[in-house]
TrEMBL record:
SUPFAM superfamilies: P-loop containing nucleoside triphosphate hydrolases
Enzyme class name: translocase
Provenance organism: Weissella bombi
Record-linked Pfam families: ABC_tran
GO molecular function (one): ABC-type quaternary ammonium compound transporting activity
Protein name as it appears in the record: ABC-type quaternary amine transporter
PANTHER family in the cross-refs: OSMOPROTECTANT IMPORT ATP-BINDING PROTEIN OSMV
Organism taxonomic ancestry: Bacteria, Bacillati, Bacillota, Bacilli, Lactobacillales
Enzyme Commission number(s) from the entry: 7.6.2.9
């Protein structure tokens, strides 16, 4: 559990984080979303002490991070940035195993852990392990960055706009990847983005930050259906995102009965209508929130009315 207590951060007399109180539960996929300059990176960096708060406290599992030495603090916190900065003169597997090496893990064990994870993120060890970073695309390099952060099995992973520099397809693939790794390892993730759609897609909880103020912290559905104020609602409306949730609320769905094939895509109501359309291109119907069925006809009716 990560707790912010009255945390303020000031740079040269300019307050950029305004008295934040926030609790992030263990195992949460917490997304901090807001426009550029709102203080997201600063908040993230205060967790692993790359930035020092001006006042207030940050606790991890009831321990004040200011009291922990930074090396052991960071050993337990993975960190993934927008531009991952792999060492250009080290191979992919060496880059991926750097933190293991720093933690004193033996070479053979290191190799096994790295291999397992590289295979899992779609960079088969046999094929990629001995390549150099310059031989990888941007999306592939980000995958290595994710492996590097995950391979020590940290309880907390901080991610600062990790997919923002990628093309839409790679971004979608990496979002799917991080969701599946999250399901598998269940770390606590604090993920920063300026992209509302990404926030809704990934977060189990979303914190909306504007000008250093935390406007709302809630589940994605609640943020969409009950925005705390005008600032939150205009942020999400300006993105012109329409969620499957909107379609469900118009009544255009059926509830699952027993004899239904589950061999169809499963979506959640915080995914977009566009994602629904993509899924219905190949299937007659899909299941949403493990509860509703939506078919092509219902989607067409919805679109014809909006
Ligand atoms: P975000 O990640 O949401 O874009 P940041 O946390 O990077 O926002 O920045 C918040 C504000 O703090 C911005 O106005 C930025 O210019 C300022 N800021 C960030 N880092 C520093 C720094 N090291 N020195 C002075 N000002 C900074
Ligand atoms: Mg930032």
């Amino acid at each position: 559990m990560i707790v912010f207590e009255n945390v303020i951060k000031t740079y040269q007399n300019k307050q950029v984080v305004n008295k934040i109180n926030l609790t992030i539960a263990s195992g949460e996929f917490f997304v901090l979303v807001g426009p550029s300059g709102s203080g997201k990176t600063t908040i993230l960096k205060m967790i692993n002490r790359l930035a020092q708060q001006t006042s207030g406290k940050i606790l991890i599992d009831n321990q004040d991070v200011a009291q922990v030495n930074t090396t052991s603090l960071r050993q337990n916190i993975g960190y993934v940035l927008q531009n991952i900065a792999l060492f250009p003169n080290l191979t992919i597997s060496q880059n991926a195993g750097l933190l293991l090496e720093a933690n004193g893990v033996k070479r053979s064990e290191r190799q096994q852990l790295v291999q397992e994870l590289l295979d899992k993120v779609g960079l088969p060890y046999e094929q990629y392990g001995s390549r150099m970073p310059s031989e990888l695309s941007g999306g592939e390099q980000q995958r290595v960055g994710i492996v590097r952060a995950l391979v020590t099995k940290p309880e907390i992973i901080l991610m600062d706009e990790p997919f923002s520099a990628l093309d839409p397809l790679s971004r979608k693939q990496l979002q799917d990847l991080i969701l599946s790794l999250y399901q598998e390892f269940k770390p606590t993730i604090v993920f920063v983005t300026h992209d509302m759609q990404e926030a809704l897609r990934l977060g189990t909880k979303i914190g909306v930050l504007v000008n250093g103020d935390l406007q709302q912290v809630d589940e994605p559905q609640v943020i969409i259906n009950h925005p705390a104020n005008q600032i939150v609602s205009s942020l999400f409306n300006n993105q012109k995102i329409t969620l499957i949730d909107d379609l469900i609320r118009t009544g255009l769905k059926e509830t699952i009965t027993e004899n239904i094939s589950f061999d169809v895509p499963h979506l959640t109501s915080t995914q977009t209508i566009q994602e629904l359309a993509t899924a219905l291109y190949d299937y007659d119907y899909v299941i949403v929130d493990q509860h509703y069925i939506i078919n092509q006809r219902q989607l067409l009716m919805y679109i014809s009315k909006h």
